[in-house]
TrEMBL record:
Residues 47-69 are annotated as: Disordered. Residues 198-261 form the Acetyl-coenzyme A synthetase N-terminal domain. Residues 54-69 have a biased composition (Low complexity). This is acetate--CoA ligase.
Length: 834
């Protein structure tokens, strides 16, 4: 591991085992009564065929549960190559089936037959030998008798199986081999309706990124056009051996992201169109804001900030709840060229103080309080504490602008520092409702957003203006297949990158109507999300797997009580979504009608990197599918060697994309060493990744969450994925702990489905589930019952805390104030050893 920077852990043994085979097999029987293996594969003889998806990366022999090749003399089962580099991708249909064809080396073979109607699933076959009967994906008249008979046999068998599936006797279980096609109806109107179109655009985007992104950027308003040097509109160095790391896009171009997100639409006659529906924590509290109104509000705040002397290049810290005023404050900063640094209003006073000290703003924007579910949070007292700390350490914030959120806290009950604090309502409404735009360079900073790293000091990720604007807008449009009239709801908070790129900038740049929800998905009950979907006729719903799992836990009834018929598209972000949750989201929430865009990206990347383009190709439950336009992923081994084809390794990116972060604020060398030093010539994401035979990408989690048990590297996500396959397990979080014999042991925190009691029998069943899914070496040593897991408000499990509990270091838990519910920690401590 000599080449790895410290803090990066080795990869799991075989990531193909992690998420690929984890949808629950309800009965494990096929129609003929045979035991079905871990996925749905049948040969023409009716016997079960197994499939091998061994990893070329894996340094160890496959575990006992790994699939082995079992070639059949008759028909070999194989994955369909709907997007391998050698696949023609051509299909033709006949009698309700589709037949796929590979034309790689000139050897044409039947690879995939799928029933298009009814329940969606894939069965894969490879007919023997070079099939002379197939040419360019078409069955030629020269097909041999034997070949046709074989196809008929397969079709007949397939029909039987389809009936069995429809009758609910079993569900197709192997996510890596399950293809979920967009419906014809979806495809008909999709922006990118075919693989061919996606492929053509993708090829162009990597071959000539300058031409590709110039064309898209021209759709925005630029006060002055960017510079073009030798046909290039970007410069980059991703190789630390060649000098300092540097990325620039559209340099010399003058624009303003606020102008493009608001004024442009108002000037196009859309002033009275709805830009934002705000839904309060308490049902019944809501408001509607048009583009015209939003622009006026933004201008008023911009004017006030200017009156305080805030100008281009100054930092402004925003610590606000999800009121309309939060995106307004961000856009106001952007309008005057100030750099916003939003701190999630769930961070403690210490964390806020640390972030303030880093960028030294003159002004901090906040609200006096907020209700989160049934809980009151007194934000102003946290800010007071933070500002007292920063003053002591040499930075006195001049103005604290406080939005009086009377629903939560009365003004008269708010502590006040006379010479510093100002009520929003006292100064903003009286400002002029027009405000001049500050034209900035494409490479001028837009915002700072702190994210945690491997050390205690958070990293100030810095994004600039032009590339971020073009990229977030374009990814939003294509990953969600956005078209005018869509009502888009993203449940993220603006305190995280998702709230920046896909609640504020991306959608507004497209002129979309967004829903901004102040509350939590389960308050006052588990039906709240679907009530909101129906209330605003939401067409695109974007949330995190943790929310999906917590809603799944409450069962189908709260979902089914609401119509949800407006929904057209679903999205997922933040962590790998396990296939069982994917499936529930798809079938129950989306009524098997809405594609799911599982979007992989990071604070650092600014926008989606690996994501479905939903009209273009089939999805696989749990896979983020393929790279977005202009993104060149590379999976590398521990020596930084790029791996080809099916493989597992470290996920890197080979070349810059417009919304790449440009530096870590005030620490360019940390930027270089963290992201560009581990694998020379690449941006290193910190994530592990598997690419399957079809070219689909499967994110397997942070490589720092890997556990090494007796020399076996096991991803915590793999064990979690196995545990949640047990029907009574709602959620699981797995960490490593020191083990005398094995080096590290596996410690699993398990949340059960509501109404299920803890029992020794269940504990054993859970361990058995992991043994059977991954192998005995991965069996958890400890199952710790967890009524709840410690999560940040953005839904990330804080494994740091779980590791401390597992290691019995209860007095070293550190700051738990940033948790959505700090109370769960006490519960967990109480249940230790029970
Ligand atoms: C957008 C966001 C980034 C990390 C990233 C990865 C994980 C995000 C994911 C995903 C699997 C997805 N992650 N999306 N893993 N599938 N669709 O969450 O940014 O807070 O910076 O986190 O989140 O591990 O490296 P950020």
């Amino acid at each position: 591991m000599g080449t790895l920077a410290s803090g990066i852990s080795p990869l799991p043994v075989c990531s193909s085992l992690s998420l690929g085979n984890s949808i629950r097999d309800r009965s494990n029987r096929d129609a003929s009564g045979e035991r079905v293996s871990n996925c749905c594969r049948f040969g023409s003889t009716g016997s079960v065929k197994e499939n091998c998806h061994s990893s070329s990366y894996s340094p160890s022999p496959p575990s006992s549960s790994a699939c082995r090749v079992s070639p059949s003399a008759e028909i070999k089962s194989s994955v369909s190559s709907c997007r391998s580099s050698s696949a023609s991708g051509k299909f033709f249909s006949g009698s309700g089936f589709r037949v796929g064809s590979l034309s790689g080396s000139g050897i044409l073979s039947l690879t995939s037959i799928r029933k298009r109607s009814g329940r969606k699933f894939a069965v894969h076959y490879m007919a023997p030998g070079p099939e002379a009967g197939f040419k360019n994906g078409r069955l030629q008249s020269a097909a041999s008798e034997a070949e046709l008979t074989k196809i008929q046999q397969v079709e007949a068998h397939f029909q039987q199986e389809t009936q069995a599936v429809s009758a609910g006797q079993y569900v197709v279980e192997d996510a890596e081999h399950t293809l979920v096609e967009p419906s014809d109806e979806f495809r008909k109107t999709a922006l990118i309706p075919s693989l061919e179109k996606y492929d053509a655009l993708y090829k162009e985007s990597v071959k000539d990124p300058d031409a590709f992104w110039s064309r898209i950027a021209s759709e925005f308003y630029w006060k002055e056009k960017w510079e073009v040097n030798d046909g290039k509109i970007h410069t980059e160095n991703f190789d630390i051996r060649e000098g300092p790391i540097k990325v620039e896009w559209f340099k010399g171009g003058k624009t303003n992201i606020c102008y493009n997100a608001l004024d442009r639409h108002v000037e196009a006659g859309r002033a009275s169109d709805i830009a934002m529906y705000w839904e309060g924590n308490e049902p019944g509290y809501d408001s509607t804001v048009t583009f015209g109104q939003l622009l006026e509000l933004v201008c008023q705040v911009a004017n006030y900030l200017r009156s305080l002397g805030v100008k281009k290049g100054d930092a402004v810290v925003i610590y606000m709840p999800m009121l309309v005023e939060l995106p307004v404050a961000m856009l106001a900063c952007a309008r005057i060229g100030a750099i916003h640094s939003v701190v999630f209003a769930g961070f403690s006073a210490d964390s806020l103080a640390q972030r303030i000290l880093d960028c030294k703003p003159k002004v901090v924007l906040t609200a006096n309080g907020v209700m989160r579910g049934a809980k009151l949070i007194n934000l102003k007292s946290i800010v007071d504490d933070a500002l007292a700390q920063t003053k002591k350490q040499g930075h006195a914030v001049e103005t604290c602008l406080v939005y009086g959120n009377e629903v939560a806290t009365k003004k008269e009950e708010t502590a006040w520092v006379g010479e510093r604090d100002v009520w929003w309502q006292d100064v903003i409404p009286s400002q002029a409702s027009r405000s001049e735009v500050e034209w900035v360079d494409a490479e001028d900073p837009l915002f700072l957003l702190y994210t945690s790293g491997s050390t205690g000091k958070p990293k100030g990720v810095l994004h600039t203006t032009g590339g971020y604007m073009v990229y977030t807008a374009t990814t939003f449009k294509h990953a969600f297949d956005y078209r005018p009239g869509d009502i888009y709801w993203c449940t993220a908070d603006c305190g995280w990158i998702t709230g920046h790129s896909y609640l504020t900038y991306g959608p507004l740049l497209n002129g979309a109507t967004v829903v901004n929800f102040e509350g939590v998905p389960t308050y006052p009950d588990a039906g709240r999300c679907w009530e909101i979907v129906d209330k605003y006729k939401v067409t695109i719903f974007y949330t995190a797997p943790t929310a999906i799992r917590s809603l799944m836990r409450a069962g189908d009834e709260p979902v089914k009580k609401h119509s949800r018929k407006s929904l057209r598209m679903l999205g997922s972000v933040g962590e790998p979504i396990n296939p069982a949750a994917w499936k529930w989201y798809y079938e129950v929430v989306g009524d098997s009608r809405c594609p799911i865009s599982d979007t992989w990206w990071q604070t650092e990347t600014g926008g989606f990197m690996i994501t479905p383009v939903p009209g273009a190709f089939a999805l696989k439950p749990g896979s983020a599918t393929f790279p977005f336009f202009g993104v060149q992923p590379a999976i590398v081994d521990e020596n930084g060697k790029e791996l080809e084809g099916e493989c597992s390794g470290y996920l890197c990116i080979k070349a810059s994309w417009p919304s790449a972060f440009r530096t870590l604020f005030g620490d360019h060398s940390r930027y270089e060493t963290t992201y560009f030093a581990p694998f020379k010539g690449f941006y290193f994401s910190g994530d592990g990744c598997h690419r399957d035979k079809d070219g689909y990408y499967w994110l397997t989690g942070r490589v720092d969450d890997v556990i090494n048990v007796s020399g076996h590297r096991i991803g915590s996500a793999e064990v979690e994925s196995a545990l949640v396959l047990h029907p009574q397990c709602a959620e699981a979080a797995v960490v490593g702990y020191d083990h005398d014999v094995k080096g590290q042991g596996i410690y699993a925190f398990v949340t059960l489905v509501e109404g299920v009691d803890y029992s020794e029998e269940l504990r054993k069943a859970l361990v058995a589930k992991v043994r059977s899914q991954i192998g005995p070496f991965a069996a958890p040593d400890v199952i710790h019952w967890a009524p709840g897991l410690p999560k940040t408000r953005s839904g990330k499990i804080m494994r740091r805390i779980l590791r401390k509990i597992a290691a019995n270091q209860i007095d070293e838990l550190g700051d738990v104030s940033t948790l959505a519910d700090p109370g769960v920690v006490e519960q967990l401590i109480e249940l230790k050893g029970k």
